[in-house]
Fold this sequence. Notes:
The complex is a heterodimer.
Chain A: H1 3-21, H2 23-42, H3 47-79, H4 82-88, H5 93-123, H6 131-156, H7 162-189, H8 195-224
Helix pairs in contact in A: 1-5, 2-3, 2-5, 3-5, 3-6, 3-7, 5-6, 6-7, 6-8, 7-8
Chain B: H1 2-20, H2 34-61, H3 64-96, H4 104-125, H5 130-154, H6 172-216
Helix pairs in contact in B: 1-6, 2-3, 2-4, 2-5, 2-6, 3-4, 3-6, 4-5
Amino acid sequence: MSVLQHAARIAWKDLRIELRSKEIVYTMAFFGGLIVVIYAMAFPVRPALVRAATPGMLWVALAFAGTIGLGRAFDRERENDTMRALLLAPIPRLSVFGGKAIAIAVMVLSVAAVCTPLLALFLQAPLFEHPLPLVLVLVLGAIGFANVGSVFAATLLKVRSRDVLLPVILYPILIPLFVSGTHATEALLAAPADLDKAWYWIGFLGIYDAAGLVMSLWIFESLVIE
Amino acid sequence: MLAVLSGLGFVVTLYLAFVYAPFEPVLLFNQKIFYYHVPHAFMLFAATATCGVCSLVFLKKRTPKWDDLALASAEVAVLFGAAVLISGSIWAKAAWDLWWTWEKRLTMSLLLWLVLVGYVLVRRFAGASADRLAAGLAVFGTLGIPFIYTMVDKSDHHPQAGSGGNVMTLTGPMKLVFWSCVLTFFLWFLTLVMMRVQSARAERELRELREQGLDAGLLT
């Protein structure tokens, strides 16, 4: 079997555990929703302000909720020491990384599927005027987050204060991702929407994801192996 | 030797910058901080690149000396970065009457500095396997530099508050003074990094000896 098939199998294992317990997705989505409600109450809802502020709210909600889900998803492997079993399995280690990253990306996207409509509902943000580019931005953002996130969450498994260190490590590295995601969303929300700018930032995100992916594939093994 | 040279350099550049160099026609006296601010920024970028490259080599080869070098340059880079941000802020207040603006060089230095502070925090608090973790952070942080550069260049969020221009276009005495300041701070940077590498190596060897002693049952 190829690397990709193994990766798909590991991702499916993670997602099946999640489908049975629904722990991570429920808590992540609830937390993301909470952040949206807090934002809606903390900032004045004026139409001019909504168009400018909603992209930032969306991406911060995703970053926070994503970090929670990421920590929990890897804690699951730590509790029964199954990460070692996964790394010992007679499959390429890149498939372990790939499988984990795919599962995380799916979970982040499911949170986005909750937060985006909620923002549109509470703030009357015109988020669905250009659904296709918006979905593309969110998918690319989730892939980039899951990619870098899985590398560091896996490395942090053996570290004492991992819950504190995960965001400390992740956010400075992911600044390009969050900023370009915000710019793309903002361009889509502007009145009238600036599609050229949105596509520029979508391309930027795509290149960022590709570079991050190459780097992860290159150093993942040296990071997690004793 | 390096320490003596950079010490001499400090004295000489003080003279050069404040007595020898002419006043800049627009900014007058407050342009003097430029001779200190910009070399610090150069060293910040040099140290970050060193840290990233050494970390990558360390991850691939697992030779601890590369890790010592990465740690040393990251810590020195945090220092130089703090100096850049503070001196830049002072200069911005004097020249533009603003303590901070989201101009592209400021943004980029700040973001870079945040990655380095993250690196040092990880080294300090992550315990046993911190070296590889931090190396991964440095590698991804360095990978992000071109993206941050393009990003702050293209986004129209940042007011162009008239930054100092291109240092390559300096002429006459200002050019001489500027590059001698760069040289001085480069020597100073090397001194700091080499001292830090030595202490990092000593710490590591002490730790290894202690582990050997524990294994041999000589220590409790």
